[in-house]
Design a protein that fits this description.
- The complex is a heterodimer of chains A (about 400) and B (about 260).
- Chain A has about 400 residues and is α/β, with parallel strands linked by helices.
- Chain A folds into two domains: about 350 residues, no CATH class; about 50 residues, no CATH class.
- In chain A, about 20% of the residues lie in helices and about 40% in strands.
- Chain A is built from seven helices and 22 strands.
- In chain A, strand 2 and strand 3 form a beta hairpin.
- The longest helix of chain A has 18 residues.
- Chain A is globular and about 70 Å long.
- The termini of chain A are far apart.
- Chain B has two domains: about 190 residues, Rossmann fold, CATH 3.40.50; about 55 residues, no CATH class.
- Chain B is about 35% helix and about 30% strand.
- Chain B is built from eight helices and twelve strands.
- A six-stranded mixed beta sheet of chain B has the order 6-9-10-3-11-12, sandwiched between helices.
- In chain B, a hairpin with a 2-residue loop joins strand 7 and strand 8.
- About 0% of the residues of chain B have low confidence.
- The chains are: A alpha/beta (about 400), B alpha/beta (about 260).
- At the A-B interface, helix 5 and helix 6 of A face helix 2 and helix 3 of B.
């Protein structure tokens, strides 16, 4: 049996396996696409779609990006690398798998294919996605931008991404997921596997904008080798029907590091189950998980964070802070620490609260209105300062958050 | 009432959590003067300031607060602040993610850059250089890019509060124990700032304190002593040595007889 056949067999066996967290979706309610997406050019993207993707940080002029990947449903794909940009590859996963035999070793390596029914279905149905690679030793200065757009109703957008930062490389990816507000019930299934090789640095910044009929089930995992650095920043600022995501990072190399930041701004009746895990397996590995959740209207947010220390001397910290802005909303914080070796240093802080009256009164006494004071407090609360992020990406996160707060409060 | 009266507190009765604190207090504050409000613990000193500022835990049960000729008891904290009332908090709450310098530029337009899009070395200009010069004068230049009140030391809180309320150029400012917990050097800085402000004579200052150092330094115009939620004594700075020697109980008992 070939490796591919073995994976398929494992996927078949996991077809009915529910996920550990989140609402169990009936996949029969949605339809997978059976066609191969076609390649398209930038000038085929309508003004309307350009506006939509710009809301999640995708610059359709492509001027500020070293590479771009844009996919609509499972139908059309744009993949470009800036002319003259060396050491960077951005192509559809299907194409990459044909081009490189070795890539099959990376497919379902970080994320097990039989994780749950979503990964199983993803493998068994038709998929595409992006393959992004920074070649050994290349520092890609400008960010690579990607955007996945879901426009078709009752369908499943089935995406499998593989990102490799080769030895000594540096790469910054900003990715957005967006959907027009009038899309009927659909599911976004996104598998992402990240490989950060020795001494490589990869930052991954993701802004999501869905609509309230969309279910989202990302399945992501990262493997970090010696002295590698992985920084993930995630902002979900729109309503959706439900999201459940729990990216895992395995710090397998000595002195490797991973930081996971997330901001969840809950609106309407959306259900968010958002978490992350760091598995510290190698000496001197370290990391942190920082999450900020704000629940408004009738939204429900569960913020999870797992730190698992398996090697003496590893160090990690978890911060899970929630702010409740509505009596009908709900926030749960579920931090978990596990050490399986002596001398592991793990810590956590979890808080859930409301905007303090004393803070409001204080700011109002300095001349701010109640609304201004609330916005300032919430704004300050979600400040997500990832020290390794290039300023342009920090700004796009800041702008997205600012826009949401201005609209929301 | 003369035209000079800025704030007139009339028969004010105030409760906090159902417990009466002010029991018919009468106080007048004139424009540009400096007042000391003294009194034993729990006499209602801080309550006066917090009630005038409009903090909701202090409920007005009777009497009135006339400011600039109109009653302000039904006005919000924001409205009062905009009318020129300021209060330096004794223990201000921390506000995460809000830098002190950005906050001051926001509450005090004098420090904000005139051109909002003015670029300064690639960064959008938020605050003018004057802010940092003034920070230095108060010795809080290290606090500018820290989160508002977060992990500030006692002395840093006092100086930051003083800086903020003075920046707002209020018509009346209540300073709630601006001198507590300060070392001698900080006391001098605070005293100097208050005195400079007095010399400009554009703000009425109400200093709530137990200590004579700052009061003497700024040369207070009038001293009010509260007891049990009422005004018990009015006098000048000259009484302070006697007060310090005798204590409130004996001083007020003798003054009453």
């Amino acid at each position: 049996m070939t490796e591919t056949e073995k994976k398929r067999k494992r996927a078949e066996a996991a077809k009915k396996k529910s996920a550990a967290y989140g609402e169990d979706l009936d996949l029969d309610q949605f339809e997978f696409s059976h066609e191969q997406p076609r390649r398209m050019d930038l000038d085929e993207v309508s003004e309307e779609d350009r506006d939509l993707v710009s809301e999640v940080g995708f610059d359709a002029s492509e001027r500020l990006a070293s590479g771009s990947y844009l996919q609509f449903d499972n139908e059309s794909i744009l993949a470009d690398v800036l002319i003259g940009q060396e050491g960077l590859e951005v192509i559809p996963t299907s194409e990459a798998l044909e081009k490189y035999d070795w890539l099959s070793d990376y497919l379902w390596n970080a994320v097990p294919v039989d994780t749950d029914k979503y990964t199983a279905a993803s493998e068994l149905e038709h998929y595409d996605g992006y393959f992004i690679r920074a070649k050994s030793g290349h520092k890609i200065q400008m960010p690579v931008q990607t955007c996945l757009v879901l426009k078709k109703g009752k369908s499943i957008q089935n995406v499998h991404n593989i990102i490799i930062a080769e030895e000594g490389s540096e790469m910054h990816i900003i990715t957005g997921c967006a959907t027009p507000s009038d899309v009927e019930r659909s599911l976004h299934l996104g598998v992402s596997e990240f490989y950060v090789k020795k001494k490589a640095r990869l930052t991954f910044t993701m802004v999501h904008k869905w609509s309230d009929k969309i279910d989202v089930r990302p399945r992501s995992a990262t493997v970090v080798e010696d002295n590698g650095v992985f920084v993930s920043s995630y902002a979900i600022l729109s309503p959706l029907r439900s999201i459940q995501t729990f990216p895992k990072v395995r710090l397998m190399g000595r002195n490797s590091r991973a930081d996971l930041y997330s901001v969840v701004y809950g609106t309407k009746q959306s259900k968010y189950d958002v978490g992350g895990a760091l598995i510290l397996e190698a000496a001197a590995s370290s990391g942190k998980i920082i999450s900020r959740s704000i629940a408004t209207e009738q939204s429900e947010i569960i913020a999870r964070g797992d730190l698992i220390g398996k090697h003496s001397g590893v160090k990690a910290r978890l911060e899970c802070n929630g702010l409740l802005l509505s009596d009908e909303a709900e926030i749960g914080a579920v931090p978990a620490l596990r050490a399986t070796s002596e001398g592991v240093e793990l810590s956590h802080e979890a808080t859930v609260g409301k905007v303090g009256a004393d803070q409001l009164n204080y700011l109002m006494s300095r001349g701010l209105t109640e609304e201004e004071a609330t916005t300032l407090i919430v704004n300050g609360f979600v400040q997500l300062k990832a020290p390794d992020l290039p300023p342009s990406l920090q700004r796009s996160i800041d702008d997205a958050i600012k826009l949401t707060l201005e609209k929301g409060l | 009432m003369t035209d000079d009266v800025l704030l007139d507190i009339k028969g004010l009765r105030v409760e906090a959590n159902g417990i009466p604190i002010l029991r018919g207090l009468n106080l007048q504050f004139e424009r540009g003067k400096v007042y000391a409000v003294l009194g034993p613990n729990a006499s209602g000193k801080s309550t006066v300031a917090k009630t005038v500022m409009g903090l909701p835990e202090y409920e007005v049960k009777g009497g009135d607060i006339i400011y600039k000729g109109e009653s302000i008891v039904n006005k919000s904290i924001t409205e009062r602040a905009k009318m020129g009332i300021a209060y330096a908090f004794q223990s201000p709450p921390a506000i995460s993610g809000v830098k002190l310098e950005d906050f001051i530029c926001r509450i005090c337009p004098d420090y904000a850059c005139k051109e909002p899009d003015e670029e300064l070395m690639g960064e959008t200009c938020m605050c003018r250089q004057e802010l940092y010069d003034d920070f230095e004068r108060l010795g809080i230049e290290n606090l500018g890019d820290r989160n508002l009140n977060e992990n500030f030391s006692g002395g840093e809180l006092k100086r930051s509060e003083l800086f903020q309320v003075l920046s707002m150029r209020p018509d009346i400012v209540f300073l709630d124990e601006p001198d507590s917990g300060l070392d001698y050097d900080s006391l001098k800085v605070v005293g100097r700032e208050l005195k400079a402000m007095k010399e400009k004579a554009n703000s009425t200052m109400v200093i709530i304190s137990h200590h004579r150092y700052v009061l003497e330094f700024v040369e207070v115009d009038k001293v009010y002593i509260l007891e049990n939620g009422r005004l018990a004594y009015t006098g000048g700075m000259g009484i302070i040595p006697e007060l310090e020697e005798k204590g409130y109980d004996m001083f007020l008992a003798q003054a009453a007889s």
